[in-house]
Amino acid sequence: MRNNYLLGLAIALSSCNSSGPKTEIVTEPQTPVTVTTVKRENLEEYAELNATSSFMEKSVVKAGISGYIQSQPIQKGKYVQAGQVLFTLITKEARAIGNTINKLDPSFKFSGITTVRASKSGFISVLSHQKGDFVPEGEQLAVISNNASFVFLMDVPYELSSNIRSQSAVQLTLPDGEILKGSISSALPSVDSLSQTQRVIIKVNPSHSIPENLIAKAKIVKNAHSQAASLPRESVLANETQDKFWVMKLLNDTIAVKILVKKGMETIDRIEIIEPTFKPDDRIIVTGNYGLADTAKVKIVKN
């Protein structure tokens, strides 16, 4: 009986222990993040404007006499050299009786033919008449776009005029991605009354011919700061109204806190931090910072 009693007591105690509550250890979640440090560098802020290719000088080729165009060894769009023959004209009289007079008296050598030559090198942009046409004296035959006068014209908002005066070099990007280096030559002494823009002339020296009326993108430096403290754009967060900005700074390897900042200049991938002044070894979260609380548990992962 005594042994049975002890056995039953042991079973009862065992069953009580197995049915009791178990203690669980809850670990606070850690957000995986990547970090960076403040970088000191020269920052430049650009304005992007359109610039249109143009020939500033165009030579009008005119007929020196009244007559018929006997020959025309040129085509629209072709390049011609200064002094090259563009047209041959023959007078009505020479066309009618010239050959007859020469047959009667070969020593007379009457031709009534005159040549029209290019005064400058360039491209034939306008071709007004064709072979066989009759043209009066002084009639426009063609227009040559002077190759040496090729420039880009850029309409600059007047509020950026001081930026234009402070720089001479400008970078042009053509629609096919080609980049040209240009220099600001001058600005016209007038402003468009409606758009309040001032036309600026940009000289270029391309290695190949560029068509007229091609629109390129010009980068104008608006602001420049030397040795500015900057962070990657992704590391700077903002509220919905875009009037407060902050970063998440690491206190140690696992704790990050919210630090309000004052922004300065912005580029495509960097933002200048004016306040506060961060130390070179301060670690700032780049990825994983969105939605974090003012104080958060984090876990640093490798980039």
Structure description:
By secondary structure, the chain is mainly beta. The chain has 3 helices and 21 strands. It has a 6-stranded antiparallel barrel. A 4-stranded antiparallel sheet has the order 3-10-8-5, with no helix packed on it. The protein has a 4-stranded antiparallel sheet with strand order 7-6-4-9. The longest helix is centred in the N-terminal third of the chain and has 17 residues, at 2-18.
Brief rundown of the structure:
It is built from three helices and 21 strands.
Radius of gyration: 40 Å
Extended strand count: 21
What's the average pLDDT? 85
CATH topology heading of the largest domain: conserved putative lor/sdh protein from methanococcus maripaludis s2 fold
CATH class of the largest domain: Mainly Beta
How many strands, which pairing sense, and closed or not: the largest β-sheet? 6 strands, antiparallel, barrel
What is the general shape? rod-shaped
Straight-line distance between termini: 73 Å
* Percent of sequence in beta strands: over 45%
Q: How many domains make up the 3D coordinates?
A: 3
* Helix content estimate: 10-25%
Class computed from helices, strands and strand pairing: mainly beta
Largest sheet strand order: 2-11-14-13-12-15
What low-confidence regions span 5 or more consecutive residues with pLDDT below 50? none
Q: In the CATH classification, which architecture of the largest domain applies?
A: Beta Barrel
The helix/strand order is HEEEEEEHEEEEEHEEEEEEEEEE
